[in-house]
């Protein structure tokens, strides 16, 4: 069982001083009750793994048992295509009542229209005291409206194969920087004759690495609040040059080979065979990486530049739960949301399938029931300790991300040099930012 002191420390990181006292209070609710209440059908949309689907369905079954007047229709899928589907539903007024949303999306959604109900209007239904006020303000509030509530707290880390590290005499307390990543990765490649690869990476990972590098060097946001770039061409060339070196030295797998598994390392044959050393990901993905393999998975802090002006480590909600503005049953959706996020029975059923809970009530319930995965807890705590300034909204604009990811793809397939990629990323992002600004 996880020790009380460890849970308390985690509470400090997750909730800060505003909600520390909440770590000792489960905040359990008992549902809405049955009786002759009006029959209501709610739709709930989410993405996730099989484990998340199974445990969420079990929680919904329990909720419907406690609330016979409510029927919850589950709509769930994998991550691919989810955002576009949700955009279409929100724009057409056909979105489900309760929706799992990736936190970076809310900036784009908020610029289109009021897509989500302001959860501040449901303070008599949803217990907001279990969430850290600053955490909500940093990640869930836009236009003075509470767009959603965090299901959990998470941060970017490196997950690694402990047996792989032992095989290549890589200390398990290694702090990777941009230079020793190249040195160690090249050694692994050479000693294995190219069979083993230190770092799993594709276009998305390359973009994340590019953003981290320039932010660590400048201390600025990747995209400034005034819609200008937070980096110049020489710095872009420098950062992209490192990425090219990683490809050429075999530190990462060629894109042509990694493409089918870009966001699904847990399904990559090289991972199952123990031929990958590590990957950048979120703590909640560790169980899927551990499933079906004969080695132990650990967590390390993000790649960090010596003398970095900011860590650039992304920490944010695992996901948000939001209520569609178009919902005809917003109050019932708010009751379901409160139960899922704050009720002790719901917490035990759901476990940590959405990360370490951001609600102090749910966190306390899981700790008491010995339902917290210590590896996920330790990884989340590690990410929170190294947290950088939250990314601003414009940095996560979907059009900007698409432009930058496509350029990383060209670099990865050797269809562009670092100089050419730097010119293109500055030209294309600047043009799109001017367009976005003109519509504000």
Automatic annotation (TrEMBL):
Keyword Flavoprotein: no
The entry's keywords: Signal
Signal peptide positions (record): 1-21
Protein name: ABC transporter substrate-binding protein
Domain of life: Bacteria
Species for this entry: Paenibacillus sepulcri
InterPro entries: Bact_solute-bd_prot1, SBP
UniProt keyword Phosphoprotein, yes or no: no
């Amino acid at each position: 069982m996880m020790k009380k002191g460890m849970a308390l420390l985690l509470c400090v990181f997750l909730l800060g001083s505003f909600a520390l006292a909440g770590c000792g209070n489960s905040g359990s609710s008992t549902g809405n009750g049955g009786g002759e209440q009006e029959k209501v059908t709610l739709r709930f949309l989410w993405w996730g793994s099989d484990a998340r689907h199974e445990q969420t369905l079990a929680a919904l079954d329990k909720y419907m048992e406690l609330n016979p007047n409510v029927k919850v229709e589950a709509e769930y899928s994998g991550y691919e295509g989810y955002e576009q589907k949700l955009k279409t539903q929100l724009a057409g007024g056909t979105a489900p009542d309760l929706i799992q949303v990736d936190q970076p999306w809310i900036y784009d959604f908020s610029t289109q229209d009021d897509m989500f109900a302001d959860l501040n209007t449901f303070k008599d239904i949803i217990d907001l005291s279990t969430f850290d006020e600053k955490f909500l303000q940093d990640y869930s509030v836009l236009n003075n409206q509470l767009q959603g509530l965090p299901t959990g707290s998470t941060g970017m880390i490196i997950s690694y194969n402990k047996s792989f590290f032992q095989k290549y005499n890589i200390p398990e307390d290694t702090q990777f920087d941009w230079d020793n990543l190249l040195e160690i990765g090249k050694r692994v490649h050479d000693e294995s004759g190219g069979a083993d690869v230190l770092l799993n990476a594709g276009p998305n990972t390359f973009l994340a690495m590019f953003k981290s590098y320039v932010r660590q060097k400048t201390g600025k946001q990747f995209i400034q609040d005034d819609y200008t770039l937070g980096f110049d061409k020489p710095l872009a060339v420098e950062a992209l040059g490192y990425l090219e070196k990683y490809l050429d030295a075999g530190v990462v797998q060629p894109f042509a080979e990694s493409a089918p598994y870009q966001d699904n390392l847990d399904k990559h044959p090289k991972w199952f065979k123990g031929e990958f050393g590590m990957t950048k990901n979120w703590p909640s993905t560790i169980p899927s990486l551990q499933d079906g393999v004969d080695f132990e998975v650990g967590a390390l802090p993000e790649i960090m530049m010596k003398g970095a002006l900011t860590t650039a480590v992304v920490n944010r909600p695992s996901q948000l739960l939001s209520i569609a503005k178009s919902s005809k049953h917003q109050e019932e959706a708010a009751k379901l949301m409160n139960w899922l996020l704050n009720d002790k029975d719901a917490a035990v059923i759901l476990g940590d399938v959405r990360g370490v809970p951001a609600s102090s009530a749910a966190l306390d319930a899981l700790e008491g029931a010995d339902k917290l995965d210590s590896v996920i807890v330790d990884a989340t705590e590690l990410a929170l300790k190294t947290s950088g300034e939250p990314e601003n909204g414009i940095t996560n604009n979907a059009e900007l991300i698409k432009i930058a990811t496509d350029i990383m793809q060209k670099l990865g397939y050797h269809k562009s040099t670092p100089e050419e990629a730097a010119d293109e990323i500055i030209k294309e992002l600047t043009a799109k930012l001017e367009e976005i600004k003109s519509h504000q």
